[in-house]
Amino acid sequence: MTNKPSEPMPRGNIYDAFAKRMFSRVMVFVDFLVHYADPRFVAEIDLKKIKPAPTHYIGKEGDERIVDLVFQCPLKNGIGSLMAVIVFEHQGGSLKKIPQKLHKYISAIWDAETKEKKKVLSAPYFIVLRTAKKPHRGAYPKMSDALPKGCDGKPLGKAVEIEYDVVDLPAWDFDKLVGGAVLRSALGILKKMIEGDGEEFPEAMLPLREISDSEQKVELTKELLQFVDKAFAAHNRRLEAAKMNEAVKPVLKEETQTMIKSYFEERDEIAEARGEAKGKAEGKAEGKAEAVVTFLRARFDRVPKKTEKMIRQMTDPKALDSWVAHAATCQSLDEFTKALR
Q: Rounded to two decimals, what is the model's pTM?
C-alpha cells in the first residue's frame, strides 16, 4: 500500500452510496431494524412482509425530495403500515437540516396515500444513520430551532415536531457490532474505512465466512472490495494485491487467487476504457481550442499569451464551440477577451 502525502478529498457520497446500496437489500434492512431500531416499533411490524415502498409514495422519478431508503412495513394487526425511512448522513457537522427534510418526506408519503383514498395513513418512523468520523453530541435539532424567537426566547408559531432516531456508526465498538453476516460486514467496513487509515478493513470482512452460498459470498466480497477501492482512491491511495489477498483469503480460500486476478483485470479494463474516453475528449477539446487560437491569429496577427492560455485550459466542448464562433465574428481582441470572463 502506498500513501501519497496529500490531503484526503471530501467524498462523503462514496460512503453514503455504499450504505444505501447495502441497505436496499430487504434482508439487510430487516436485520438492521431488528438490532438497531426502536424495539417498540419493531414489535408491531410483520417483518416477513416488509418491502421497498412503491415509487409513487416517494415522488415521481427524478424528484429529489426523497433520496434515502423508504420501506413499507405492514403491521401485525393488519391495520395500516409503518413507513420506515433511513436517512444517510455522512457529515461532520450538526443534524440541523434533518427536521425540515423529514417534513418533506412524510408530506410526500401522505400526499400519495391521500390521493389513493387510504383511510389509515402510514405511521412514519425515521432513522438517521450517520457515518461521519465523530458521533453527534447534544440534543437532536428540532424544527422550532429554525424559527424566529419571541421576547421570551421561545419559538414563535406552532411548529409540528417530527421525532427521529439517530444511529451513530462512530459510537459503536467494532467488536460489538451485531446482526447477520452481511450487516456486520457492511457496518464494519464503513467503520474501518471512516476511522483511521482503513488498513484494518480485512477484519471487517470475516463475517462473510458464515455465508454458505458460495456465489453470494463471492458477490458480496467483490462489492465490499469495490467500496474499499473507491474509498482508498478518494484519499489518493490504491488497493494493492497484497492487502486484497489478506482480506479475501480467509473468506474465499480456494477461490482467492481467481477472485483477485479477475478483480484486478476488470479494474484495469475499466481504467483503460475511462482513459481512452478521457483521451478522446481531451483531444477533441484540444482541437477546438487550436481552432479558436488559429481564427484569432488569422484575424488579428497575434494572440496575447494570457488569452491563449485561457483558451487552451478550457475543456468544455460547448464553451469552445461558442468561442470558435465568437473568434470568427468579434470586432477586436478586447471584445473576444471580455467574453472569456
A: 0.69
Q: Is 166 helix (H, G, I), strand (E, B) or coil?
A: strand
Contact 94, 52 (CB under 8 A): no
DSSP conformation letters of 237-251: B---HHHHHHHHHHH
How crowded is residue 91: how many other Cβ atoms within 10 Å of its Cβ? 15
Q: How many CB atoms lie within 10 A of CB 240?
A: 13
H-helix or E-strand spanning residue 69: strand 69-74
Q: What is the mean pLDDT of each run of 10 residues along the chain (341 residues)?
A: 39 76 92 94 95 72 58 93 88 78 89 90 92 84 90 86 90 89 94 84 93 87 88 83 84 69 60 51 68 80 83 79 77 80 65
C-beta of residue 228 within 8 angstroms of C-beta of residue 243: no
Residue among 133, 136, 60 nearest 98 (CA): 136
| DSSP sequence for 207-242 | GGGG---HHHHHHHHHHHHHHHHHHHHHTTB---HH
